[in-house]
Design goal:
The chain has 382 residues and is α+β, with helices and mostly antiparallel strands. 26% of the residues lie in helices and 33% in strands. It has ten helices and 20 strands. An eight-stranded mixed β-sheet has the order 2-1-17-19-20-15-14-18, with helices on one face. The chain has a five-stranded antiparallel β-sheet with strand order 5-4-12-11-10, sandwiched between helices.
């Protein structure tokens, strides 16, 4: 691994130096790659987006009610979640799964999110779409605009529910990327992990009990959602997410006869391959000190950085370290004197401070600026 150290001096010249560095690697199990029933499947590291396992993951397929991941996300992002309104009678007149909406029912957008994510209500998805955009067609345009913003290049929405329709498709990969974004929304994340919920709606509104169709929530340890789906064309579809020991995974299957087993095997495999990994420098960065009782000081990361990484990802971590070419004495231990930018496969992950490993007091000898610069240049080019 290469660590890039970018120096920026007071006389405005830049010097690039390559330093050796590494991360502390955990032990990775030699697990067997899963065999799944799904026609298309993918497993990704939800923190980095890296693909852990895939099978036909980039083929366009019908997605059934996993469509409601997008519908629920847009509803959550629309805000005004607790204002009451009357459902559109035409919108709720739809076949398939339902949360039980009737003509004249009074609901909130929050209640509709529960209705579409737990019992997979097509009526809930349609009612939310009309309330937000004025029509289901206009909402489909909003869905496609959001898909484009997320980089979903092989996804197109025609309706908010996921009922079979010409031109309504996605890929396992795109669906995993969409789910990554959806789980970042606190409302979506909270609701999709509920095995059941008490939700108020009706005319007049009263509390109802809604159950989740996603068996993974009680069958798989650490499961935090996300969505089931089925139509005659799409067949069984499932998106699941699970967290264990700081690692979060997302699994997707499209057209999977044995989806519960598929997801269990995929997630088990993922947790055997991705571990919390300490990000550290092999050796501290040494910077000269001017006008002090010490000639140099070591710089280290200011805090412990742990990333959930596979073995392959751990080989793709790099750093850019930014600091002045030398320091003037008169600082304490732990003083921030630069920054470290951490990258994974060229993508920015986070930024932390570089701090001194000790304090250096100024001595009585006074060194002028040019004397100090000359001292630094002699050391640097020696």
């Amino acid at each position: 691994m290469k660590i890039t150290f970018l120096k920026k001096s007071v006389i405005c010249f830049l010097t690039m130096i390559s330093l050796s560095g590494s991360i502390s690697l955990p032990a990775f199990a030699q697990a067997e790659i899963p065999s799944v029933s799904a026609v298309s499947a993918i497993l990704i590291n939800a923190d980095t987006g890296a693909v852990v396992y895939e099978k036909n993951a980039y083929e366009q397929r019908a997605m059934a009610s996993t469509t409601k991941i997008m519908t629920a996300l847009l509803t959550a992002e629309a805000g005004d979640l607790d204002s009451k309104f009357t459902v559109d009678s035409y919108a709720i007149n739809v076949e398939g799964t339902s949360m039980g909406l009737r003509r004249g029912d009074i609901v909130t957008r929050r209640a509709l999110i529960y209705g579409m994510l737990l019992p997979s209500g097509n009526d809930a998805a349609n009612a939310a779409a009309v309330n937000i955009s004025g029509s289901m067609g206009a909402f489909a345009e909003l869905m496609n605009k959001k898909a484009a913003s997320l980089g979903l290049k092989n996804t197109r929405f025609v309706n908010p529910s996921g009922l079979d329709a010409k031109g309504h498709y996605t890929t396992a990969y795109d669906l995993a990327k969409l789910t990554m974004a959806a789980l970042e929304n606190p409302v979506f994340s909270e609701i999709c992990r509920c095995a059941d919920a008490q939700v108020e709606y009706g005319n007049p509104p009263y509390l109802r009990s809604l159950g989740n169709s996603n068996k993974m929530l009680w069958q798989y340890d650490g499961c935090i959602g996300v969505k089931t789906g089925f139509t005659d064309n799409a067949r069984r579809c499932l998106v699941s997410a699970a967290e264990r020991n700081g690692v979060r995974l997302i699994a997707v299957t499209l057209n999977a006869p044995d989806d519960w087993s598929d997801h269990t095997k995929m997630l088990d495999y993922g947790f055997s391959q991705i571990k919390p990994t300490d990000i550290v420098l092999t050796a501290p960065l040494i910077v000269p000190v001017i006008g002090g009782c010490e000639e140099n000081v070591s710089l280290n990361l200011s805090e412990k950085i742990i990333l959930p990484l596979s073995h392959q990802e751990s080989q793709k971590v790099s750093f850019q370290l930014h600091t002045e070419p030398f320091l003037y004495a008169g600082f304490q231990k732990g003083t921030a004197v630069g920054t470290a930018r951490i990258y994974l496969d060229g993508e920015f992950v986070c930024k932390v401070n570089l701090v001194t490993d000790k304090g250096v007091a100024a001595d009585d000898r006074k060194i002028g600026f040019f004397d100090g610069l000359w001292c630094f240049l002699r050391r640097f080019f020696a």
